[in-house]
Amino acid sequence: MAAFELILPGIGRAQTLAAGRIAEKIIRVEELALAEGIAFLNSLRGWIDVQLDVGCPNRN
Asked: Which InterPro entries match (predicted)?
């Protein structure tokens, strides 16, 4: 199963995609450091800005 298939098609995600606030794109972990911003989106909690922890161990 590809990583993008693991993302749930939630209501908040669908609404945010439809509004043009986000776009889907497959990225590599290395590309996260180049992102303008990183957010966690949840229908219950809404949009939560997060920061990349570069000291986080690689979990395989």
From this structure: Aminotransferase-like (IPR036038), BCAT-like_C (IPR043132)
Q: What pLDDT does 1 receive?
A: 55
Question: Which has the closest alpha carbon to 42: 17, 10, 18, 20?
Answer: 10
Give the Å distances, CA to CA, from 30 to 1, 15, 27, 44, 57.
Answer: 21, 28, 8, 29, 13
Residue 43's pLDDT is what?
A: 77
C-alpha 38, offset from chain centre: 7
More confidently predicted of 59 and 36? 36
Q: For the CA atoms of the chain, what is the radius of gyration?
A: 13
Which residue has 């979990």 as its token pair? 59
pLDDT at 19: 93
